[in-house]
Design brief:
7-stranded mixed beta sheet, alpha/beta, 10 strands, disordered C terminus, globular, 3-stranded mixed beta sheet
Amino acid sequence: MSPVHSLTAPDFRALRRHVSPTPETLFPECPDDLSPKQMAGNLAPVAGQRGSISDRQTTDCPPPSPATQRTQGRSNSPVRNSAVNPRERATARLVGIARLAATSPPAETKRKSAQRPEYFVLPVKSILNRCDSQRVPFEWTINPYRGCEFACKYCYARYTHEYMELDGGEFEKKIYVKKDAGPLLAWDVAHKYSYASDASGGTRAEHIAIGTATDPYQPAEREYGVTRACLEELAKREGLSVSIITKSDQIVRDIDVLRRIAARSDLAIDITITTLRTRLARMLEPRAPRPDLRLVAVKQLSEAGLAVGVSASPLIPGITDREGDLEAVAAAGKEAGAQWFFSGVLFLMPSSAQQFFPFLRAKFPRLVQQYEKWFGESGYMPEEYRRKVAERVAKIRQTYGFRSRPWVEKKHTTPCTQMSLGWDAAAVALEVRKNHRGYT
């Protein structure tokens, strides 16, 4: 049996006995009400702070304030002894996700390239993670991996590695493969998921977003299949609300299971295409598939009867926002069969800025001074620029006849009944529906 997959879920009580309880949340697309500068002091501690972030707070979300951080006894915790870490941090005692990461064994790989990342098997307690942000249209996230090999220069999720006491620059160099995804997700959906979300007044299922902090179809998926394991589990259920976002054409491998999910639940797929210019895409997203390959994936998914749209996020000021570029992405997406289109403006968290600004100086030096002005006080572009982009995107939607985001347009709206792990929830939910409609 692969060290990444098992047929049964692990003993949950044993997993929880030695670890402090952690709120089941994952980071939102944009952290709520906090600028990156505010969050900078809440990430990985600097030398002299003795240890890492408390595992009583979220492991992937920035903490709400420094006052919420707690220092725990660390005398029995493992230490990270890695040459890539500063010497003073190598002896820091670790807790929570940092402790798990430090003790994670290497994952076997057939890849021989010297440029390949390091892979590790990460034991986790949960695959389905709560997201309580009011700024995103989903309640739950699934991220099959921690880290992403695509190495996008602008990636905001780099800060998630800092919770493991790793530098954000290692986001694409150390990839953590979540263990036992299928059994864990089966337990999570049966015990935590609701088919009647508070946000909808109980009329719609809670939404699960897959790939919000890591690309679920990065190269690691070919070997470890964690994303596929999650999808196979979701395909057993009925009445779910699910979306997937990826830059990879590898998603077409799973058309069979995606169609099974779509037949029983709401499923939306977002393919990210930030530019059609191949050379620029290679600079911005060094290891992601070419834009034309992503468009082919859009076409194949659409022809398979799946709901698919294009995300042109982030729009990068001065680089991908020139006249006609965003419109060209939208036009190509429409021709390939995309049903919706959206784009959001770049924002830079501290760990992202540390990677992005050196890239900017090397490739776009004329923009450095302007970026320092734009992002000097906040990780966000000025409000006026963002307003104009929103108007531009709205015009693009009108021009090409794109719909709004798919999770607003639900097909499966009948609430299901939640059952314990001992029940076949999908079968029971179907029976409930039949009774409700007067069938015998």
